[in-house]
Design the sequence.
C-alpha cells in the first residue's frame, strides 16, 4: 500500500513526464532550500518555470489546484527567488509559475497559475 509521500512522488514523476512530452525541459526535481521546496523547475517557451504538483485521488477534499493557496504561492516564490539568486539566473529571464493537478489518473496543466509574490 502506498503512503502519502509515495503517491506524491509518483504524481511528480507523472507530471514531469507529461510536461516533457509537451515540450518542457525539466532541469531540477524537488529543489529544496531553507525557504521550502519546489517540485519541478524547467524551461518552456522561453520561460523559467517553477511547477507545483498537487495530487488528489478524488475531489472529495477539493480539487488539487485549489490546494495551492496564497501562503503556498508566497512560499514557492521565495524558493524561486532563492533558486534564481543561487544559480545566477539573470533578472531578464522571464519566470512563470505553473500548477500541475493530478486527479486520479487525469492530469491538468495550469500555465501561469499565479503571479510572482516578492521582490522581483
Sequence:
Amino acid at each position: 500500500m502506498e503512503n502519502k509521500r509515495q503517491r506524491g512522488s509518483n504524481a511528480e514523476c507523472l507530471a514531469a513526464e507529461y510536461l516533457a512530452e509537451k515540450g518542457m525541459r525539466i532541469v531540477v526535481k524537488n529543489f529544496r532550500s531553507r525557504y521550502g521546496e519546489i517540485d519541478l523547475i524547467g524551461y518552456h517557451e522561453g520561460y523559467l518555470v517553477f511547477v507545483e504538483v498537487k495530487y488528489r485521488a478524488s475531489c472529495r477534499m477539493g480539487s488539487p489546484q485549489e490546494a495551492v493557496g496564497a501562503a503556498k504561492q508566497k512560499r514557492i516564490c521565495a524558493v524561486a527567488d532563492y533558486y534564481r539568486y543561487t544559480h545566477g539566473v539573470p533578472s531578464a529571464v522571464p519566470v512563470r509559475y505553473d500548477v500541475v493537478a493530478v486527479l486520479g489518473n487525469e492530469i491538468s496543466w495550469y500555465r501561469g497559475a499565479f503571479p510572482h509574490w516578492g521582490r522581483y
Observations:
- Helices lie at 4-21, 70-86.
